[in-house]
Amino acid sequence: MGGYLPETIVTNDDFTKMVDTSDAWIIERTGIRQRHKVAPGQRTSDLAVEAARVALAAAGRTPEDVDMVIVATTTPDMPFPSTASIVQQKLGTRPCAAFDVQAVCSGFVYALTVADGFVARGIARCVLVIGAEAMSQLLDYTDRGTCILFGDGAGAVVLEPVEGEGTSADRGILGFDLQCDGSKMDLLYVDGGVFEDSNRIGKIRMQGNQVFKHAVHKISEAAENAVIKSNLSMADVDWFIPHQANQRILNGVADKLGLDRDKVISTVAMHANTSAASIPLAWYIGVQDGRVKPGDLVLIEALGGGLTWGAAAIRL
Ligand code: ACO
Same domain for 282 and 248? Predict the structure, then answer.
């Protein structure tokens, strides 16, 4: 695993200078205390490359070993080429498969599932899966309901087939559940894009309490499905590494699933919601501080714009 956070930190107090809010309100409703923000000129691909380098070093691999790059992002450097193409060039891998996955906050769950399929079928031998976001670029800094929620960062994982210890059937993704309900896209979207007359990228628009209402129910259902499909039970889960949207959602899902809160890896206070980057970043922190170890059963889940949502149970 690898992770990277840009140097600039934006505190809750910084937002009190922009909108009618307070540190106490933000902490009470979201658990967020601070978030990181890209420096001028720093792009999503730059965050992705930093996280990828850390992950490759941890895996004892070099860019030469990589045969597939998948970037989950909703803040690509540009409409095309894909951020994965740019990352491939900046990292200096050999020519190999490279593409983006766009499922907003659920992007990492989708991307990891895609990558796992390539590895399990023997098509790829060293896949870099990166979640990277510069959400600050999509924020309306006059909308207090959204601007306080998000942060920038990247997380990455190196995926390889298992050799000599167990079989591929008992490692990697054991069960997953991916979902989308496009009829609920109005709850969370960006009001711009290539078809906008004004030719602007747009900003995040969200019905926060509606998203909240769907989140706990849908995420819990997907997480249960992922564990059932793995022929395991919640009691087998060593670490719950959810998408880091809001501490109240994290607690609600953990309680609904009957998971001890000590098993929840939470970074929302320090990173805020980094969309597709939040799960690999939290996972990286869990590995770094010694909690998450080889052999552990990890349960990941996310919900985001689309609405998309999903979960996966993974044996490390
Ligand atoms: N500071 C102070 N007051 C605020 C702020 C703020 N930053 N933001 C909203 N309020 C106000 C609202 O204007 C409203 O005021 P009013 O009663 O005068 O109209 C009041 O707080 C209550 O608003 P609600 O939206 O009902 O507040 P809620 O308790 O639902 O909290 C929040 C809002 C934090 C956005 C919550 O709905 C939430 O976290 N939703 C999930 C959204 C989310 O995480 N989205 C990320 C992408 S999807 C995902 O990752 C799961």
Answer: yes
CATH number of the domain at 290, please. Answer: 3.40.47.10
In this structure, are 228 and 105 located in the same domain?
no
Using CA atoms, how far apart are residues 14 and 167, in angstroms rounded to an integer? Answer: 51
Whether 146 is in the pocket of ligand 1, judged by its Cβ within 6 Å, is no
Q: Are residues 146 and 182 in the same domain?
A: no
Residue from 17, 190, 209 whose mutation best tests the ligand 1 pocket (most atoms within 8 A of CB): 209
Task: Report the complex ipTM.
Answer: 0.93
Instruction: Give the pLDDT confidence of 203-228 residue by residue, as tens digits.
Output: 999 999 999 989 999 999 999 999 99
Alpha carbons 129 and 112: distance in angstroms, whole number: 6
| Total domains present in the chain | 2
The residue nearest atom 19 of ligand 1, judged by CA position, is 145
Pick the closest to residue 306 from 110, 152, 175 (CA basis).
110
